[in-house]
Amino acid sequence: MKLISASAAKQKGLPRYFTGKKCKRGHLTERRVVGGACVKCSLLAVEKYNAT
Ligand SMILES: [Zn+2]
């Protein structure tokens, strides 16, 4: 994954950016431009939602 800042991603119209830093739950992955949530955390939230 290439490093791209939130503002650079926004300028390019990309849905996600990647800082190379871990999220608060320790995932090293892309983050959403809208809301800033890590993609993995978002997926986990959806799975949790679907499971209940
Ligand atoms: Zn995360």
What small-molecule ligands were found? Answer: zinc ion
Rounded Rg: 12 Å
Main β-sheet, spatial strand arrangement: 1-2
Mean pLDDT: 94
Major beta sheet, specifics? Answer: 2 strands, antiparallel
What count of helical segments does DSSP give? 2
Give the terminus-to-terminus CA distance.
Answer: 33 Å
SSE pattern? HEEH
- When the domains are counted, the total is 1
Summarize, please.
With 52 residues, the chain is mainly alpha-helical.
Description:
With 52 residues, the chain is mainly alpha-helical. The chain has one domain. It is 38% helix and 8% strand. It contains two helices and two strands. It has helices spanning 6-12, 39-51, and strands at residues 16-17, 31-32. A two-stranded antiparallel ribbon has the order 1-2. The radius of gyration is 12 Å and the shape is globular. The relative contact order is 0.18. The model has no long low-confidence stretch (mean pLDDT 94). Zinc ion is lined by residues 23, 25, 27, 38, 40-41.
